[in-house]
Amino acid sequence: MTTYDDRARLTDLTATAERVRGSVEGVIEGKPEVVRLALTVLLAEGHLLIEDVPGVGKTMLAKALARSIDCSVRRIQFTPDLLPSDITGVSIWDQQRRDFEFKPGAIFAQIVIGDEINRASPKTQSALLESMEERQVTIDGQTYELPSPFMVVATQNPVEMEGTYPLPEAQRDRFMARVSVGYPSPEAELQMLDVHGGVSPLEDLQPVAHAHDVVKLVETVRGVHVAETVRRYAVDLVSATRTHPDLRLGASPRATLHLLRAAKASAALDGREYALPDDVQSLAVAVLAHRLLPTAQAQLNRRSAEQVVQEILQRTPVPQQQGGSGGHGTPGYGQQPPRRL
What we know:
Mean pLDDT: 86
GO molecular function: ATP binding
Number of domains: 2
Structural class: alpha/beta
Pfam families: AAA_3, AAA_lid_2
Keywords: ATP-binding, Nucleotide-binding
Organism: Streptomyces doudnae
Largest sheet: 5 strands, parallel
InterPro entries: ATPase_AAA-3, CbbQ/NirQ/NorQ/GpvN, ChlI/MoxR_AAA_lid, P-loop_NTPase
Distance between the termini: 32 Å
């Protein structure tokens, strides 16, 4: 049963998320679905990859999200000459103490903005692997914990653009979701000229939430209930990517976990204490597509990973809501519903 405290925590979550959303949308006009996905990833303890052509507001989105929360923020400008130690830190010999002193790198912040991450070498990109998965950094045999909350918001240009390196599969798999900002509508672009024409709105952006608030919201999201049939639905979607003929690399078990966490965060943002199949459906493309590798034949046929995920969504049976409750005040689900498109 849902308690009064549970409802109160969900109310606090939606109110805080609404403040953050409004703050970010004051900078990024006309992209509410992109802002919502960024909030979903933040509350699901994930990392966000923003991929698009230059000039559409990728870095602006990352900076707006970071400035809307009162927490430590560091920015890493990825370049071909960036070293792994620039990210993780390095031990330096202290002449006075006659001992090595650890100098933390840019990864030691609560929100890390990685600008144009695919312009650094794969070796440098790999410096993020441990921190993104285990939220710690190991230097010279010594392990250092990263602060909480911890989120990497990375931007990248399309791989076909000059001076870029493709992200390794292990690196892409650690990003919970990928989003493309896209070009604004003519109305949003006209509004942008009015808002950004003089002074950047980032300069007047004030925090509307504290890092402690985000930690509490994350704990609330962890308590969102997911029925067995909804979990099975997520597993079926991910499993289908591993046997699809157009894919030579399917999604990993980590992808299943990320999909479920994102669905719980999406449910909490809607004020629900339980996740629905709709939450899984709406996030499947963003969470799964960037992890998949199409076959050479699929690339020749111009079949994208996004199209494959959409096809899998259409073919996979969705749990059907039944009468009664599945526990914790949640609706029950069967296995074979009519597909809603």
